[in-house]
Write a structure and sequence with these properties.
Beta-Lactamase; single chain; alpha+beta; disordered N terminus; Arc Repressor Mutant, subunit A; four-stranded mixed beta sheet
Length: 439
């Protein structure tokens, strides 16, 4: 280990500010960061210097593997003002913002804190509190519409809370993004009534954000917001499968399963294709015409009468989910496991993405729209892991995928030559390539 690191007995506990350690030993943090960059992506949790909390070290590792650039001057703005305003006016956000403005903003302003709310992708939806702190943090891109996902800007309270699903504090020097090291942050994930992750709430300010009290504050605020926000599916009739917290499972299955608070329904293959197409449209706030459904789920030559007959049967199979109007549009947005995988990849949560990916999407479906999404999810996962994931996560997925030479080649390229794991991976790759040659 590099010289000058603190004694192992002094390892920080979970809180950012234990009484027996200095608030922010910039020298120790910078030395630990240099140690990590020297080790590279292969560094494990055990390599963490004692002055660095495990949750911060593992976040640094994820940031490094995701390719987050610490030299960025500010977080990238990915949504314009009108789009942010539209998002903030819908879904869970009006109730969340109202509660924060009522219960927290005034006290936060008095304490020189900025309160920040972001969506599940780490994009800032709203800020409030101290005008001075807001002006200072705007210079690093902490503004509505900017992405603070861990996979984009590295370790930060909001993005890291989304990845871990737990409250987190980040000291000034612990931020991955250089300009963010002028501030400390604390954040906690916000979940809806059904336990689904909808975003995160955090506070940003000076060193007083590093205390256990600040962590308790964001945990309490996040819990309060959870009582206000509705699940992603919205609110429907309690007896209908289309009610709140409805999930469509299509990964690792030949038929889709619609799961709601009152049970689940296995769909026919055709209904699986139709509902998936409608769920994708609903995710963008739109619907599908009969002609569009024909092209997505059969082909463009199929008569619209065939589509209407099948939609009538689907409406009977899942009452309360579909309106009696055209274009066909879901009453509620559905949580779709395939879209969850793509969202996890965007956040840089590669291990969670691998765990969520249970296999090919509706593997036997030949519907054009279904086939396109199946290929998109598989390829995004494959490319994302090869480019950015930790080696152990890449190996786990390669083992599950079996005969994928590209994945095993990436594993071989990552592992140090001459090690037992490198030899085993090389043998596996040779076996796969020999079988491919035979065919």
């Amino acid at each position: 280990m590099a010289a000058g690191l603190p004694d192992p007995g002094a390892r920080r506990p979970r809180f950012a500010l234990p009484p027996h350690l200095p608030l922010d030993d910039a020298g120790a943090v910078e030395e630990a960061r240099a140690w990590l960059f020297a080790l590279g992506p292969e560094a494990g949790v055990d390599a963490a210097p004692p002055a660095i909390r495990e949750e911060i070290w593992t976040s640094w590792l994820r940031s490094l593997c995701a390719g987050a650039d610490p030299s960025l001057t500010s977080a990238p703005v990915v949504r314009g003002p009108s789009e942010v305003a539209s998002i903030r006016a819908a879904g869970p956000w009006p109730a969340a913002v109202a509660r924060l403005e009522r219960d927290l903003v005034e006290d936060a302003a008095a304490d020189q804190l900025l309160v920040v709310l972001c969506d599940v992708d780490g994009v800032v939806v709203w800020t409030g509190g101290s005008w001075t702190m807001g002006h200072r943090t705007a210079s690093i891109g902490l503004v509505p519409g900017a992405s603070w996902a861990e996979g984009t800007v590295g370790t930060n309270a909001l993005g890291t809370a989304l990845v871990t699903g737990a409250p987190v504090q980040v000291l000034r020097g612990e931020h991955h993004l250089g300009p963010a090291r002028a501030f400390a942050g604390a954040a906690a994930p916000v979940r809806d009534h059904a336990g689904g992750l909808v975003g995160a709430v955090g506070v940003v300010g000076g060193d007083h954000v590093a205390t256990p009290l600040a962590l308790a504050l964001v945990r309490s605020v996040a819990g309060g917001l959870g009582h206000d926000v509705t699940p992603a599916g919205g609110q429907g009739h309690p007896g209908d499968v289309g009610a709140a917290a409805t999930h469509l499972h299509v990964l690792g299955r030949e038929r889709g399963v619609l799961e709601g608070p009152h049970g689940s329904v296995e769909l026919s293959p055709r209904h699986s294709d139709l509902l998936l197409s409608l769920a994708l449209a609903a995710d963008r706030g739109t619907g599908r015409s009969a002609g569009e459904l024909a092209a997505e789920c059969w082909d463009a030559a199929v008569p619209e009468a065939t589509v209407r007959a099948e939609m009538h049967r689907l409406r009977r199979a899942v009452p309360g989910l579909l309106p009696n109007s055209h274009p066909y549009r879901l009453h509620h947005r559905l949580a779709v496991d395939a879209l969850d995988v793509l969202a996890l990849l965007r956040r840089g949560a590669h291990r969670q993405a691998v765990q969520a990916y249970r296999g090919p999407l509706l593997a036997r479906s030949t519907a054009p729209g279904t086939r396109a999404l199946r290929e998109r999810v598989a390829e995004h996962l494959r490319q994302g892991l090869v480019a950015h994931a930790r080696t152990d996560v890449l190996m786990e997925f390669a083992e599950r995928s079996g005969e994928d030479a590209v994945l095993w080649q990436a594993v071989v390229d990552r592992l140090p030559s001459g090690t037992a794991r490198h030899t085993a991976a090389l043998l596996r790759l040779d076996e796969i390539e020999r079988r491919l040659v035979q065919f």
